[in-house]
Design goal:
Length: about 950
C-alpha cells in the first residue's frame, strides 16, 4: 500500500506556515462529531429536494412521511405510484429521499425493498444518484458487503460512487478494505481523489495506527493542494492525535488557514486521548474566549470524559451549567456523558437525578446509569434499573448492559446476583457473545465458583483467546494454579495462540505454587520472544520473584523497567513487606513519592504492614497522616491496616480509639481489633468485642476472626472460653476448623499445662497435623518439662520438616532444659550435617525515625561502649531490688559465670539500654524481638521499669509485654 501512494505523492513536504490564521466563518460551522466526514459530494451534484412539477402534493406527502419516520407508509405510497412517476426527476428524488432516510434510521428491510424497485428499471439502476444512495444506505445500515455488491455491479463508476464505497468501509471500521480500494482508485482509474476521499483514507490510517501511511496521504494532500481544505485538515489533525503524535497534530492545527468548530473539537479530543487533561481545558477556554466560538454538544461530550477520568467534579459541574445555558442539556449524547461523569466522580445521586429527568433515553443512557451504579457497588439498585429498563420501559438490553453489571458481582457474597445475571444473559442469548462469556467465566472465578466458570467454558463451541485467558486467569488467581497450568497446555494443543495475558496468568500460577524453576523457564521464553515490555507480563514476573522470595531478582527486574506504573511499585513494596524486609519497603515507598507516583490504598497498606513488622511507630504515624491528607484513611483496608499497625507497634489504646471512631466497621476491622487485643494478652476484651460484633453490628465471624479469638484465649489462659468458641465455630457458625485453628487450640491447652488434652486433640484431628501443631506442643512440653511427650513431638516435627533450623533448636532446648547434653550434641550434629544455622536473637528499636538493630553478643554498634556502660549501671541498680540472673535461660553446657555473661549480651537488653541512653525521662521504650523473650530478660525488664520509671513495651515473636512499675501485662503467663 505504502509504495503505491508514495509513487504518486513523490515527496512528503512539511506543511508551510501560513502568514496568519484566518478567523473561521461562523456561518459555516457544522455541529458534527470530531471524526465525521464532510457532506457527500453527491448531494452537491444532483440531489436537491425540489417541489415536483407533476405531482407536488404526492412528493410532499412522501417527504413528510420520511420526516416523521413512517418509512413503511412512505414506501407503500412510493410503490403504488412508481409506475405513474416512471423515470423522472420526481421518481429519482423520491427514491433518493427514502433511501437516505432508510440509511439514517437503519431501516434495512425497507431499504432492500426500495433496491428491488430500482433494480426493476434499467434507467433507475444505472442512475448515478440512486446507485450512490444505495451504496451509502447499505453502509449506514452496517451491510458493507451489500454495498460492495452494488458497487461491483456498476458498469461505470464516477468519483462519487468510489467515495461512497470508501466512506462505507470507513464508517464500518473496515480500515484495510478502505485503503485497498483507495489504492485501486488511484492506480487503475483516471479519477483524482478529492476533499471527500482523502479524509476517509486519513481516518482509516488512524484506525490502523498506520502513522507512516497517514503521513504519506498527508503529503499527497499537500501535493494536490487539498491540505488547506478544512475537512482534510480536520482529519489529519485527528489522525496524528490517534497515533499519539500530538506534536504533529498541534502543528497542523496551528497552521490551518481556516478552522471551524469541528477543528477545535478534534484538537481538544487529541489532547484528551493522549492524557493531557489540563491542555484540553485550556484549549476549550481559548476557543471560547479568544476565537469567540460557542461550544456545541460534541465539544462538551469531549470535555466531560476528562472530568470523569480526573474526578474533576467542580469542572464537570461548570460544563453541566454551560450545557444548560446553551440549551444543550436535553441532547441524549451529552446527557449520557453528564450521567457518566457524575457517576465516575462518585456522585451517584446527581447522576440518578439526571437519569430520571432525561426527556430521551436510549440504550446507552440505560447502560451508562447501570455502569455508574456498578462502579459504585450499588448491586440492588443495578438490578432494579435493569428490570425497569426491560420490563417497564421495554428497552432492549444488549451485551454492553450485561458487561456493565458484571463488575458489581465479583465477590463471593454476590454469587446469587451473578447467577441471576447469567440467567438473564442466557434468556436474551447474550451468553453466546465472546466478550460476555469470557466476562462471566472471570466473574464466576472471582466469586469462588470455578466449577461454574469451567461449565461455561466447556459449553463454548468456539473458544477465543479471551475465553482461554478468562479460564486460565480464573484458575491462576482464585485458588487452583495447577489447573491453570493444565488449561494452558490444553490451549497450546488447540488452535489458539497464547498472548501476553496468557503468559502473565501462567506466571501467576507458578508464583502461587512458588515454582521458581518453572517461572524462570517462562521468563526465558519471554526474553526470547521480546515480550518483556508487556506491562501485565512485567507485573506477573515481579509477583513470581517476590512470592518465591527472590527479592534481588525482583528488584533487578524492577530497576530495569523503563516505565513503572503504580501496580509495579505496589508489587515491590508488598513483596518486601511479605518477605520480612520492612526497611526496604518503607524506603521504596518514599522513593515512589519522590518520582512523582501518587500512592494508592494498596501502596499505603503495604508500607503500613512494613511499619507493623518493624514496630516503627514514628514512620507508621507519618503514613497515617499521609493517608488522612490523601483521604485514604476511610478506605476499609487502609483503616484496618492503620488499626493493625498501632496494635503491632504496642499502642493498643490508640488502636481502640481509632476503631471506636469508625463510622462503618466491616468484618476485617473487627477481626483486626480482636487479634490486636489477643497479641496484647487482653483476652477478656477480645471476647467482649467478638460478642459485640455479632449482637450490635450483626456481622458474622469468618475463619480468620476465630484465629484471632482463639489466639487471644491462648495468650490470656482462657482455656474454658477457648474450647467453647472452638466448638461453636463448627456447631453454630458452620465453619470447619482448619490447621491454624487446631494449632491455636493445641497452643492454648499446652500453655495451660493440659498436655494430655492437647495430645488427644492432635490424635483425633480429622486432618493430618502439620509441623506448626507439633511445634506448639513441643514448646509447651519444654515449658512444663514433659520430656517423654516432648520426644514424641520432636520426632514428628523433624520427620515432617527436617530442613528447618528452628525445629532442631526447639528439640535441643527441650533436652538442654533437663541437662541431657548428649541428645543436644546429637541434634546439633544433625543440623551441621544439613548445613542449617540457628537464627540469632535479634532486637530492634526505632529512634527518631531510624531503626537500630541489635544481635545477641553484638558489639558492632557505633555506641556499643556507652550501651555496655548503661547496662552495667542498670544491672547494679536492679540487683539492689532483688534481680538475680536466671541462668536456666542459657541452654548451653557452660559454667555459671559464662552463662551470666551471655545473659548480659541478650539483644533485648542491649536495645533497652540503648533506648534509655538516647531518650529523655518518661518516654516509652518500644522494642521488638524476633524470638520468644527469655525468662531472665523478662525478669530484668520488670525491674528496669521500676528504676527508670519508664514503661517498656517488648514485642516478641508471640505477643506483647508491657512492663510498668515492676509488673508485666502478661501476668508472667507467656
Amino acid at each position: 500500500m505504502l509504495w503505491s501512494i508514495t509513487a504518486i505523492s513523490c515527496q512528503h513536504h512539511p506543511c508551510s506556515l501560513a502568514a496568519g490564521v484566518a478567523k473561521p466563518r461562523k456561518a459555516a460551522f457544522a455541529r458534527k462529531a470530531s471524526f465525521r466526514s464532510p457532506p457527500s459530494s453527491v448531494a452537491v451534484q444532483s440531489f436537491q429536494v425540489q417541489t415536483p412539477h407533476l405531482q407536488p402534493t404526492r412528493f410532499q406527502e412522501i417527504s413528510k412521511l420520511c420526516g416523521e419516520g413512517r418509512l413503511s407508509d412512505a414506501f407503500d405510497l412510493l410503490h403504488n405510484d412508481v409506475r405513474n412517476l416512471g423515470f423522472s426527476q420526481e421518481a429519482v428524488d423520491a427514491i433518493g429521499l427514502l433511501l437516505q432516510s432508510c440509511g439514517q434510521t437503519k431501516e434495512l428491510e425497507i431499504g432492500r425493498r426500495v433496491h428491488e424497485i430500482v433494480s426493476l428499471s434499467p434507467q433507475l439502476s444505472r442512475h448515478v444518484v440512486l446507485t450512490t444512495r444505495l451504496v451509502t444506505m447499505y453502509s449506514m445500515c452496517g451491510c458493507p458487503v451489500d454495498a460492495r455488491r452494488v458497487f461491483d455491479g456498476l458498469e461505470e463508476r464516477n468519483l462519487f460512487q468510489w467515495n461512497a464505497i470508501i466512506s462505507g468501509y470507513t464508517r464500518n471500521e473496515m480500515w484495510v478494505e478502505a485503503v485497498s480500494l483507495f489504492l485501486q482508485l488511484i492506480s487503475t482509474t483516471v479519477l483524482v481523489p478529492d476533499n471527500f476521499t482523502l479524509p476517509c483514507i486519513v481516518k482509516a490510517c488512524a484506525g490502523l495506527d498506520a502513522v507512516e501511511l497517514g503521513q504519506t496521504v498527508h503529503g499527497l494532500a499537500m501535493k494536490m493542494g487539498l491540505a488547506s481544505d478544512i475537512f482534510v485538515g480536520n482529519a489529519v489533525v485527528a489522525m496524528y492525535g490517534k497515533c499519539g503524535l500530538l506534536e504533529q497534530s498541534l502543528k497542523v492545527f496551528e497552521t490551518m488557514c481556516e478552522r471551524n468548530l469541528v477543528t477545535w473539537n478534534t484538537m481538544i479530543c487529541c489532547f484528551s486521548e493522549n492524557g493531557f487533561a489540563q491542555e484540553s481545558f485550556d484549549l476549550c477556554r481559548e476557543m471560547m474566549e479568544v476565537e469567540g466560538l460557542i461550544p456545541d454538544a460534541a465539544t462538551l461530550v469531549t470535555i466531560l470524559p476528562i472530568c470523569a477520568a480526573e474526578e474533576e467534579i467542580e469542572r464537570g459541574r461548570v460544563i453541566h451549567g454551560l450545557a444548560v445555558k446553551l440549551g444543550l442539556n436535553n441532547e441524549v449524547q451529552l446527557n449520557n456523558a453528564l450521567i457518566d461523569m457524575y457517576a465516575k466522580c462518585g456522585f451517584v445521586f446527581d447522576a440518578q437525578i439526571l437519569f430520571d429527568n432525561a426527556l430521551q433515553k436510549n440504550v446507552v443512557t440505560w447502560n451508562t446509569m447501570i455502569g455508574g451504579l456498578s462502579t459504585n457497588g450499588m448491586v440492588q439498585d443495578i438490578f432494579d434499573v435493569l428490570r425497569q429498563m426491560t420490563m417497564k420501559e421495554g428497552m432492549a438490553a444488549n451485551s454492553i448492559t450485561v458487561l456493565n453489571v458484571l463488575p458489581s458481582c465479583l465477590e463471593q457474597t454476590k454469587l446469587l446476583s451473578l447467577k441471576e445475571l447469567h440467567g438473564y444473559a442466557i434468556r436474551n442469548l447474550f451468553d453466546s457473545s465472546g466478550l460476555v462469556a469470557s466476562a462471566l467465566i472471570a466473574a464466576y472465578a472471582k466469586c469462588g465458583s470455578l466449577v461454574s466458570a469451567k461449565h461455561i467454558f466447556s459449553g463454548l463451541i468456539l473458544k477465543s483467546v479471551s475465553s482461554w485467558n478468562a479460564i486460565i486467569g480464573g484458575y491462576a488467581q482464585n485458588g487452583d494454579p495447577t489447573k491453570a497450568i493444565y488449561m494452558f497446555f490444553e490451549m497450546r494443543s488447540s488452535d489458539s495462540t497464547p498472548d501476553g495475558y496468557t503468559i502473565g496468568s501462567l506466571l501467576l500460577a507458578f508464583a502461587h505454587l512458588k515454582s521458581l524453576r518453572d517461572g524462570k523457564v517462562v521468563h526465558a521464553f519471554i526474553l526470547r520472544n521480546g515480550l518483556e515490555s508487556d506491562s501485565f507480563i512485567g507485573i506477573s514476573l515481579l509477583s513470581l520473584y517476590t512470592q518465591c522470595g527472590h527479592l534481588v531478582s525482583a528488584r533487578t527486574l524492577f530497576n530495569e523497567m523503563q516505565e513503572k506504573d503504580l501496580v509495579c511499585w505496589n508489587v515491590m513494596i508488598s513483596g518486601y513487606s511479605q518477605n520480612g524486609h520492612p526497611t526496604e519497603a518503607a524506603l521504596l515507598f518514599q522513593q515512589m513519592q519522590l518520582e512523582g507516583i501518587r500512592p494508592c490504598e494498596i501502596s499505603v497498606t503495604g508500607v503500613l504492614t512494613a511499619c507493623s513488622q518493624m514496630a516503627a511507630l514514628k514512620l507508621g504515624k507519618a503514613i497515617h497522616c499521609f493517608a488522612l491528607k490523601e483521604e485514604l484513611a476511610e478506605n476499609p483496608f487502609v483503616g484496618s491496616s492503620i488499626i493493625d499497625m498501632y496494635a503491632k507497634c504496642g499502642c493498643i489504646d490508640l488502636s481502640c480509639h481509632l476503631f471506636n471512631r469508625l463510622n462503618e466497621k466491616d468484618l476485617v476491622c473487627w477481626t483486626v481489633m480482636i487479634a490486636g487485643h489477643g497479641i496484647h494478652g487482653q483476652g477478656r476484651e477480645a471476647v467482649e468485642l467478638f460478642e459485640r460484633m455479632q449482637k450490635e453490628a450483626g456481622i458474622k465471624p469468618d475463619e480468620f476472626t476465630f484465629i484471632g479469638l482463639l489466639m487471644a484465649c491462648s495468650h490470656a489462659g482462657m482455656v474454658e472460653e477457648g474450647m467453647k468458641y472452638f466448638d461453636d465455630m463448627r456447631k453454630i457458625h458452620g465453619i470447619e476448623p482448619k490447621l491454624q485453628h487446631y494449632s491455636c487450640l493445641v497452643d492454648m491447652l499446652g500453655r495451660a499445662g493440659h498436655l494430655t488434652d492437647a495430645a488427644r486433640i492432635i490424635d483425633e484431628m480429622p486432618v493430618e497435623p502439620d509441623s506448626g501443631i507439633w511445634s506448639a506442643l513441643l514448646g509447651a512440653c519444654r515449658i512444663h518439662g514433659a520430656i517423654g511427650l516432648g520426644e514424641r513431638c520432636a520426632s514428628k516435627l523433624l520427620e515432617l520438616d527436617p530442613d528447618k533450623a528452628e525445629n532442631y533448636v526447639l528439640a535441643s532446648n527441650l533436652f538442654a532444659g533437663s541437662a541431657r547434653w548428649d541428645k543436644v550434641r546429637r541434634l546439633r550434629g544433625r543440623m551441621k550435617e544439613r548445613d542449617l544455622q540457628k537464627e540469632a536473637g535479634r532486637s530492634w528499636i526505632e529512634m527518631e525515625g531510624k531503626v537500630d538493630h541489635f544481635t545477641v553478643g553484638d558489639i558492632s554498634h557505633p555506641e556499643s561502649d556507652e550501651i555496655q556502660r548503661m547496662w552495667g549501671s542498670l544491672e547494679r541498680k536492679i540487683s539492689k531490688l532483688g534481680y538475680i540472673p536466671d541462668t536456666s535461660s542459657v541452654l548451653h553446657e557452660l559454667e555459671e559465670g559464662e552463662k551470666v555473661e551471655i545473659l548480659r549480651r541478650h539483644s533485648e537488653k542491649l536495645a533497652i539500654a540503648y533506648g534509655l541512653l538516647r531518650t529523655g525521662k518518661g518516654v516509652t521504650l518500644r522494642v521488638c524481638k524476633n524470638l520468644r523473650m527469655c525468662s531472665d530478660c523478662h525478669s530484668a525488664a520488670k525491674f528496669i521499669s521500676v528504676v527508670s520509671e519508664r514503661e517498656i513495651v517488648v514485642r516478641d515473636n508471640k505477643r506483647f509485654h508491657h512492663f510498668k512499675d515492676g509488673l508485666c501485662s502478661c501476668g508472667d503467663y507467656w
